[in-house]
């Protein structure tokens, strides 16, 4: 009985939360001791075989030789690695925006002067009005090791005000800081002012300066209302007041280099605190960012890293021109992953944003960023201390230190190492456990039948698509394959073919209406037929697919 | 607040140049036929550019060891060509949502990645006037850009210190977009006139209110409210103050006369007509007003209001004393403006200098930058182009193009892949199905189709 640890007992108490993919471990006591673990309390520091003591959602002690109070739950974490829970600099996690389909096709009488709601100008909206902690994005980000995220509303040029929220713990009280960002984009309105980047830039100046003016007047009025005209209430303009007072920064969505420059032009004109969020093309902006004193959040949504395979069958018809084009493509692909190291070298602190990335791709992308020159300490800072400081919350989150919120991440190997998996996440003392089992082995009968030709039919937004999928198993036991479809008439190579239990999954890319689409398929095989879905990566749009095996030709 | 606004304007239009330190080059072009535009054409002459400015024009000039030396024996050197009407290097051209959008500025939408910049350089063009489109009666403010190809910085494209200009439009475009498209004023040419008159009157009132407020605000016990800040009216007020040059899209003689009448009523003097295909009918009136004209060499009949014109237009305007230029309005025509200028020798017998002024000094005057560019003179910017054969010859081919003494085009070093940035997910499609080079009504299409 002695050998049965508390940790094992804890496993018996698991409660399964219906929506979440994690196991939420019910608290037996408010005090938990995580022992014999490698602790990374903050970037650049390591405590081997240490203990973290958590009491009532706060970190009580960190280090070696910590006295464990009687009654504490002990989580023996030998050979595991502990980090401060990650902080996502910016996202749309956990929100459900009201859908208003009428708005999309709304036609206004005077497109030059539309109502603000239709024109995408709603800075007065607060994200916490739209929070839904049961949304699956919350558990997905938590599973990826993130304990806190800034989240903002979406839609239009001024979608609203963002908050910092906890991605677990007490779902009744997720808000860490209510107003942390005035979120802004360069998205124009549909067929009304401001429709283009020209209108958005001009209107931003107009609103900001109008707000500046009305704030000044209302201050003067409050001081001495006698003899003054009563100021007009305008909730759109009032939403700018905390920004004008430099209490809340503007988070501008600036994926492309020109958008980032435009945000800096507005910042220079108007003087607000600027965070360039979801930045993708930042490698040429190091000096501009420094001079303008703006803050940076790199997008975790990155172009697919394709390892160049030496494919002998294709070299024959590869012209010099193609080699040069491919060389430039590789050169630029690398820039997306190596720019963070340049910013770190220039001493510019940055964090990460996840407005578009899928949480399950985050670790892979971070590891590639580290492979491309960013130190693991700098990467950890971008995930913990920097976003905590950017949000003005560095006293309560971002490191594993006494007095801070018990937001922790525990992995089986150092997080940035290949094959490292997250085992536990703790948020304000609440522990979530993840199953580290490898993906299931393919079923024997499925393994038998999968190789060969399959016909399929899919209901895509562009109409019914039919075609053929060919799966081949090579000598090493790996799968290769192609997919042919009637809509584009292209045959495309399959990537990342996986077989798990009875599910065949793969990815491929098609060019449709000169757009490159990445498609992810997941097909459940049953006998000689399958059904499942294909999803256009990043769009959230998926469509059903059915198919059946083409009988093999007999020789 | 007032101080604030002025400060912002200074920032917007002057200070941007402070943080964008553009490249300046040093080059000695030897032994060319030098077409100065303002001081004759000289054989076997050198042009020396130092720190981006023309430092000497003469025989056997010497240069510092830093200078790149180009032997231009048998070749022609002329000032960089200036295009007074273009829509290249822009991410958006029309904010077509309202008949008056003076508050918008294409300087916010600059796109240094547009390969049209390089194509223009290959046609010897060093400066273009990137304009708002013609969907609105009062469109947006324009930007005069230097073709510093290869930069990724919007600010490095701007011609630092160039005066502000704004786009106006008459006739079918604004009436189609707003009248026919949205059923609002202007539906007719009469409506277009009223749009101008109303905008100017309102801006005048706005100005007066601010003047009154500013005069009183520091008086003791004054408790008035400042007029509500309005960026659009600020800009139109600056037109009334003479701080912005108006470039107006126009075709018919009657509407050209109408606009000059409106401007006289409001005391506005800085006016350049664009296209102005019926300018030849009212050339003396345009000259008397002191307006200028920027035309196509021989392009008309592409819609009803421009049914009637002549290839003699540029020559007639010139002979009547109107400062005239020939423009491209197109990413294709911009590559051979020197041919366009040469057409005035076939249609109108202009001299070499008169013809070349149409694409150099005259557009410079129309943009208010003739003290800096448009001719080869010591102290002017080192914007030059070297031609094989005389630029007005049908065999003329630009060889090298320099901006501020920096070489941005060399026919012998032309690369296949001119992309500045490469999108790793882009599939390269060598077949181009459609080339769109006329952008005057870009971003306005949807108003025309509903």
TrEMBL record, chain A:
InterPro entries, alphabetized: Amidohydro-rel, Metal-dep_hydrolase_composite, Metallo-dep_Hydrolase
Residues annotated as domain Amidohydrolase-related: 363-431
The keyword Signal is annotated on this UniProt entry: yes
Gene Ontology molecular function terms on file: hydrolase activity, acting on carbon-nitrogen (but not peptide) bonds
Pfam families from the UniProt entry: Amidohydro_1
Sorted UniProt keywords: Hydrolase, Signal
Signal peptide: 1-20
Protein name: Amidohydrolase family protein
UniProt source species: Christiangramia sabulilitoris
From TrEMBL, chain B:
Start and end residues of each Amidohydrolase-related domain: 313-399
Transmembrane annotation, as ranges: none
Molecular function in Gene Ontology: hydrolase activity, acting on carbon-nitrogen (but not peptide) bonds
SUPFAM superfamilies membership: Composite domain of metallo-dependent hydrolases (SSF51338), Metallo-dependent hydrolases (SSF51556)
Key words of the record: Hydrolase
Name by which UniProt lists this protein: Amidohydrolase
Organism of provenance: Christiangramia sabulilitoris
Species classification: Bacteria, Pseudomonadati, Bacteroidota, Flavobacteriia, Flavobacteriales
């Amino acid at each position: 009985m002695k050998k049965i640890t508390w940790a094992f007992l804890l496993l018996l108490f698991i409660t399964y939360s219906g929506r979440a993919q994690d196991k939420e471990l019910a608290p037996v006591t408010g005090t938990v001791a995580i022992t014999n673990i490698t602790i990374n309390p903050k970037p650049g520091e390591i405590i081997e075989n240490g203990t973290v003591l958590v009491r009532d959602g706060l970190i009580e002690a960190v280090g070696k030789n910590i006295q464990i109070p009687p009654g504490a739950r002990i989580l023996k974490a030998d050979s595991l690695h502990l980090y401060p829970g990650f902080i996502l600099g910016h996202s749309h996690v956990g929100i459900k925006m009201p859908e208003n389909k009428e708005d999309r096709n709304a036609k206004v009488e005077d497109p030059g002067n539309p109502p603000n709601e239709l024109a995408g100008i709603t800075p007065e909206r607060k994200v916490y009005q739209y929070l839904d902690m049961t949304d699956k994005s919350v558990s997905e980000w938590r599973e990826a090791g993130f304990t806190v995220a800034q989240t903002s509303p979406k839609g239009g040029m001024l979608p609203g005000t963002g908050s910092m929220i906890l991605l677990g713990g007490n779902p009744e009280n997720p808000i860490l800081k209510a107003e942390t960002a005035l979120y802004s984009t360069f998205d124009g309105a549909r067929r009304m002012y401001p429709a283009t980047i020209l209108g958005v830039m001009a209107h931003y100046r107009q609103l900001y300066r109008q707000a500046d003016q009305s704030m000044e007047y209302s201050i003067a009025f409050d001081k001495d209302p006698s003899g003054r005209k009563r100021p007009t209430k305008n909730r759109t303009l009032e939403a700018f007041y905390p920004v004008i007072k430099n209490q809340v920064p503007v988070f501008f969505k600036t994926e492309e280099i020109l958008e980032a420059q435009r945000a800096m032009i507005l910042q220079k004109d108007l003087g607000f605190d600027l965070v360039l969020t979801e930045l993708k093309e930042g490698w040429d902006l190091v000096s501009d960012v420094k001079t303008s004193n703006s803050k940076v959040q790199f997008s975790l949504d990155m172009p697919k890293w394709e390892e160049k395979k030496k494919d002998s069958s294709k070299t024959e018809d590869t012209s010099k021109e193609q080699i040069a084009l491919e060389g430039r493509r590789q050169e630029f692909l690398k820039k997306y992953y190596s720019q963070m190291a340049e910013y770190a070298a220039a001493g510019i602190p940055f964090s990460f944003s996840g407005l578009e990335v899928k949480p399950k791709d985050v670790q892979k992308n971070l590891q590639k960023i580290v492979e491309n020159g960013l130190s693991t300490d700098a990467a950890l800072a971008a995930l913990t201390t920097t976003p905590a400081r950017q949000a003005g919350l560095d006293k309560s989150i971002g490191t594993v230190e006494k007095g801070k919120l018990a937001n922790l991440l525990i992995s089986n190997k150092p997080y940035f190492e290949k094959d490292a998996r997250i085992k536990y996440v703790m948020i304000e003392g609440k522990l979530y456990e993840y199953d580290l089992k490898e993906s299931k082995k393919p079923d024997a009968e499925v393994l038998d039948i999968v190789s060969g030709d399959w016909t399929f039919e899919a209901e895509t937004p562009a109409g019914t698509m039919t075609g053929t999928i060919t799966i081949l198993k090579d000598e090493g036991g790996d799968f290769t394959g192609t997919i042919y479809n009637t809509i584009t008439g292209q045959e495309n190579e399959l990537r990342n073919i996986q077989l798990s239990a009875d599910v065949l999954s793969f990815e491929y890319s098609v060019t449709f209406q000169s757009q490159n689409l990445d498609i992810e398929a997941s097909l459940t095989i049953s006998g000689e037929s399958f059904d499942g879905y294909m999803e256009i990566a990043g769009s959230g749009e998926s469509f059903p697919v059915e198919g059946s095996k083409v009988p093999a030709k007999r020789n | 607040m007032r101080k604030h606004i002025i400060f912002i304007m200074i920032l917007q239009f002057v200070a941007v140049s402070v943080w964008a330190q553009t490249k300046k080059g040093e080059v000695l072009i030897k032994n060319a036929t030098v077409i100065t535009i303002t001081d004759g054409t000289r054989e076997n002459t050198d042009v020396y550019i130092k720190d981006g400015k023309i430092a000497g024009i003469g025989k056997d000039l010497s240069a510092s060891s830093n200078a790149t030396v180009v032997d231009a024996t048998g070749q022609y050197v002329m000032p960089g060509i200036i295009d007074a009407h273009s829509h290249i290097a822009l991410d958006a051209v029309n904010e077509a949502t309202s008949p008056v959008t003076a508050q918008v500025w294409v300087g916010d939408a600059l796109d240094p990645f547009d390969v049209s910049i390089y194509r223009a350089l290959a046609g010897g063009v060093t400066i273009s006037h990137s304009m708002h489109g013609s969907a609105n009666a009062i469109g947006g403010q324009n930007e005069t850009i230097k073709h510093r190809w290869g930069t990724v910085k919007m600010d490095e494209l701007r011609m630092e210190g160039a005066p502000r200009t704004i786009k106006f439009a008459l006739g079918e475009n604004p009436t189609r977009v707003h009248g026919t498209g949205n059923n609002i004023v202007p539906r007719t040419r009469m409506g277009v006139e009223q749009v101008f008159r109303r905008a100017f009157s309102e801006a005048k009132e706005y100005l007066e209110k601010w003047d009154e407020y500013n005069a009183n605000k520091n008086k003791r016990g004054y408790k008035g409210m400042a007029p509500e800040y309005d960026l659009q009216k600020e800009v139109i007020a600056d037109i009334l103050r003479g701080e912005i040059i108006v470039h107006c899209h126009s075709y018919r003689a009657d509407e050209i006369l109408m606009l000059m009448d409106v401007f006289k009523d409001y005391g506005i003097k800085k006016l350049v007509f664009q296209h102005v295909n019926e300018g030849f009918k009212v050339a003396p009136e345009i000259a008397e007003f002191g307006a200028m004209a920027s035309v196509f060499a021989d392009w008309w009949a592409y819609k009803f209001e421009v049914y009637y014109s002549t290839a003699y237009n540029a020559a007639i305007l010139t002979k009547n004393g109107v400062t005239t230029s020939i423009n491209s309005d197109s990413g294709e025509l911009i590559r051979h403006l020197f041919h366009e200028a040469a057409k005035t020798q076939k249609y109108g017998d202009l001299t070499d200098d008169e013809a070349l002024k149409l694409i150099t000094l005259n557009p410079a005057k129309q943009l208010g930058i003739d003290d800096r560019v448009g001719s080869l003179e010591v102290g002017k910017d080192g914007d030059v182009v070297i031609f094989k054969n005389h630029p007005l010859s049908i065999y003329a081919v630009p060889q090298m193009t320099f901006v501020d003494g920096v070489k941005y085009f060399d026919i012998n070093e032309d690369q296949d892949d001119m992309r500045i940035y490469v999108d790793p997910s882009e599939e390269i499609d060598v077949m181009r199905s459609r080339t769109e080079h006329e952008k005057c009504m870009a971003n306005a299409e949807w108003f025309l189709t509903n």
